[in-house]
Specification:
The structure holds two protein chains of two kinds.
Chain A lengths: L1 H16 L6 E2 L3 E3 L3 E8 L8 E7 L4 E6 L6 E15 L2 E17 L5 E9 L8 E3 L2 E5 L2 E5 L18 E5 L3
Parallel strand pairs in A: 2-12
Antiparallel strand pairs in A: 1-3, 3-8, 4-7, 4-10, 5-8, 6-7, 9-12, 10-11
Chain B lengths: L2 H14 L1 H4 L12 H21 L11 E5 L4 E3 L5 E6 L4 E8 L5 E3 L3 E4 L2 E5 L7 E10 L5 E10 L14 H30 L8 H27 L9 H9 L2 H20 L5 H17 L3 H4 L3 H31 L1 H34 L4 H4 L1 H32 L3 H27 L6 H8 L3 E6 L3 E8 L4 E11 L9 E8 L4 E7 L1 E2 L5 E8 L3 E12 L2 E11 L2
Parallel strand pairs in B: 2-9
Antiparallel strand pairs in B: 1-3, 3-7, 4-5, 4-8, 6-7, 8-9, 10-11, 11-12, 12-16, 13-14, 13-17, 15-16, 17-18
Helix pairs in contact in B: 3-7, 4-5, 4-7, 4-8, 4-10, 4-14, 5-6, 5-7, 7-8, 8-10, 10-11, 10-14, 11-13, 13-14
């Protein structure tokens, strides 16, 4: 009986792991103008190797980004100018984080982890569209690039390495 | 019709039916008076030289195969293209470019530019949706036209309109007969004139035969030019009279052959009936012109390396003329004036050994260049013709050797019975020589293995153009088996694209084979290469290039590519 439960459990875990195969965002829809907590879910390493770095590119319109430090990982924020000026709490913001890197850690292939940052979705982002956060997952001598963005009309499921996406909903 | 015209007609008829000629060959006579022909010949030669000076055909080019097209063969385009381009392995000159619409109506494409090896063709009208055929016909350097067609579809493919590249048997026969006639004129005619001037020591046996052969050639050379023009344009025999046909013929490298052949024939005729003092000089110049005429065009002359093949063809042609040309005057002298024939025979047999050595050496060199692999002797039409020619040559050499070592001595000493045997044997030699001319003229229709091999190793190429990136992908050789891929990438607006990584993915879903994915390595010259690649099955593959433009940006472009079996 126990072994039956065990195998059923194993089936469940293995069966759902396919859905987790990509690097994805935990919350995949948010309203423009809101503060958004991005949780990047990293379900496995690269071809069986342990993950040693996770780098995410911050799309235009996601401002005031602050990453959450992670024990065992070196955190680095690459800052740069935005393409335009955004209003945040009545003030103009023209630059900020464009890329966030967690590196120097080791996440074995058989473990799961999450990488977190927080930012504001600018009020003038177009609701109804999807923002993509391209992620490069680096392992020892290998890399998986979750950076594919579907072309207009292309099915996202057809992509081999889709970038994590966030659907923008209207301002609340 | 005057009597000499009738005689010419009769001779032409007999030339056509080689078999009928056999016994009559040695007694072939010309009814026209030699003197009249003499004055006529001087005028003809003057006219020919003038004609050659003014109408020299354009520069000869080299053998060509289609390498790549833009848009690619089989491409499905969203909208009507502004222009087409065809890139060949070597520069070509277009003859006929036709676009066949889906309903089968042809549109002649007349506006094109030559850009190196590429022919850029303007599309004069907006194409409607459906499959179009671009049918092309160009001239390559060996003077032989090559043709083919490329399919494009606008919107979505439809059933391809029917374009047939029918073989015009009537025209082919005419070209073949013209060639044989020309060979008769050049080798038996001009070569015979040389033998009479240099070897016969004042004897005039066979002069009428030689003049007849030269006249054969004088008719055949311009006619062959017209036939060549017809073939180049893909036009039927009925259009022979049109000036454009002759212009097209003159524009091929065969134009040179015809003009130089006319000069050679004129010189041969002059040496026979012109002023006695210049006979030897005219005959020698004629013999050299025979070699030059043959070296000016043809498969062998177009082969690389040209510095080797053209002199080889020249020597081969001059050698054939020396040998075969002497046969008729010698045989006729043996038969009719045995006393006069003895010194002729002696001189001929002294000179023939080095000439045959040169013939054999040049023939072997050219055969090796053209055939390349021994297997091609059996596998290709060209190789099989060569085998037939070699078999005929074997008989010819056996016969010639018997004549040379068994019969020449006693015949020279004046034994009449042996002389008669020798004359008969020479008659048979002539027949074999004619058969060899027929076989050699057949090469006109068979591409040599050398050219086939060049075509086989041509890469399969595709040009992929998207707004984000474009690429030129070549898979070499373009057939199944181990291949190497070479990739040149650029931005969509032709700027440099410094990619971090390029991956080639070849897929063929209908084959049941999983996609073949290989990372390309960057070479110093800016190209990306994949070396360890094997394409397992022929057909239409989808080639996809994953171009990592920057850390976070990837561009995927793809296009179909045809792999030959």
């Amino acid at each position: 009986m126990n072994s039956c439960l065990l195998s059923a459990g194993a089936f469940f875990v293995l069966g759902t792991s396919a859905a987790f195969a990509h690097v994805t965002l935990e919350t995949q829809e948010a309203a423009v103008g809101s503060t958004y907590k991005a949780v990047l879910r990293v379900p496995h390493g690269c071809e069986g190797k342990a993950t040693t770095a996770v780098r995410v590119q911050i799309p235009e319109g996601v401002i005031s980004v602050k990453p959450m430090p992670k024990p065992g990982w070196t955190l680095q924020v690459k800052k740069g100018r935005y393409e335009k000026s955004y209003q945040l709490h009545g003030q103009a913001v023209t630059s900020g984080a464009r890329e966030v890197d967690w590196s120097g850690g080791s996440l074995p292939d058989e473990f799961y982890d999450e990488f977190v940052f927080r930012g504001t979705l600018a009020a003038d982002l177009p609701a109804g569209q999807t923002l993509y956060f391209p992620v490069v997952q680096e392992c020892d001598g290998a890399a998986e690039r979750w950076i594919e963005i579907p072309a207009a009309g292309q099915d996202e499921d057809a992509l081999e390495y889709p970038a994590p996406g966030l659907k923008l909903s209207p301002k609340k | 019709m005057s009597s000499w015209r009738q005689a010419l007609f009769e001779r032409a008829r007999r030339c056509l039916h080689g078999g009928d000629v056999s016994a009559a060959f040695l007694q072939w006579t010309v009814c026209a008076a030699g003197q009249r022909i003499g004055r006529f010949a001087v005028r003809v030669l003057a006219a020919i030289v003038l004609f050659a000076a003014f109408a020299a055909p354009s520069q000869a080019l080299a053998h060509a195969t289609l390498v790549t097209t833009e848009p690619g063969d089989g491409a499905v385009l969203a909208q009507s293209p502004a222009q087409f381009s065809l890139t060949f392995s070597e520069p070509v000159s277009p003859l006929v470019l036709t676009l066949v619409r889906p309903d089968g109506t042809p549109v002649s494409l007349t506006s094109f530019r030559l850009n190196g090896q590429t022919v850029e063709i303007d599309n004069p009208q907006t194409l409607e949706s459906g499959t179009h055929v671009l049918s092309w016909r160009v001239i390559s350097a060996d003077g032989h036209p090559v043709g083919g067609s490329v399919l494009y579809s606008i919107g979505a493919p439809s059933a391809a309109p029917v374009v047939s590249e029918a073989v015009d048997r009537g025209l082919r026969s005419a070209i073949w007969i013209g060639k044989v006639f020309l060979y008769v004129g050049l080798f038996l005619g001009v070569g015979g004139a040389f033998a009479i001037a240099w070897l016969a020591q004042g004897g005039r046996s066979g002069q009428r035969f030689v003049i007849a052969a030269i006249l054969c050639g004088l008719v055949a050379a311009p006619l062959s030019l017209g036939f060549q023009g017809l073939d180049a344009l893909g036009a039927p025999l009925a259009r022979l009279a049109r000036p454009g046909v002759w212009q097209a013929g003159l524009g091929t490298s065969f134009g040179w052959t015809a003009l130089v052949a006319l000069v050679a024939l004129g010189l041969g005729l002059l040496s026979l009936v012109g002023p006695r003092g210049g006979a030897k000089l005219f005959a020698l110049a004629g013999l050299a012109s025979v070699g030059a005429a043959l070296a000016a065009s043809g498969h062998a002359s177009a082969a690389e390396p040209q510095w080797l093949t053209r002199p080889m063809v020249f020597l081969h042609g001059a050698g054939i003329a020396f040998w075969t040309g002497a046969l008729a005057p010698l045989g006729l002298a043996m038969r009719r004036k045995p006393v006069e024939a003895a010194p002729f025979l002696r001189r001929f047999s002294q000179a023939i050994l080095p000439v045959v050595a040169v013939l054999a050496a040049t023939g072997i060199v050219l055969a090796v260049i053209q055939v390349q692999a021994p297997a091609a002797l059996l596998e290709t039409a060209y190789g099989r013709l060569l085998l037939v020619k070699l078999a005929l040559l074997f008989f010819l050499f056996t016969l010639a050797a018997t004549n040379r070592w068994k019969l020449t001595g006693p015949a020279g000493a004046g034994e009449t019975e042996v002389q008669r045997r020798l004359a008969r044997s020479i008659g048979i030699e002539m027949l074999i020589v004619l058969a060899i001319f027929g076989v050699a003229a057949g090469w006109r229709f068979t591409p040599p293995p050398r050219a086939l091999a060049i075509a086989a190793v041509q890469p399969a190429s595709v040009h992929i153009h998207t707004p984000k990136a474009m690429a030129d992908l070549s898979i070499t050789p373009g057939h199944v088996g181990p291949v190497a891929a070479s990739i040149i990438i650029m931005t969509g607006d032709f700027g440099p694209l410094d990619a971090e990584q390029v991956t080639l993915v070849l897929s063929k879903p209908d084959s049941g084979i999983e996609p073949i994915k290989r990372a390309a390595t960057k070479r110093g010259d800016g190209t990306w290469r994949v070396d360890d690649l094997v394409v397992p099955v022929p057909g239409r593959w989808t080639a996809r290039l994953d171009i990592l433009v920057s850390d976070f940006e990837i561009v995927k472009i793809q296009a179909p590519i045809d792999i030959r079996p």
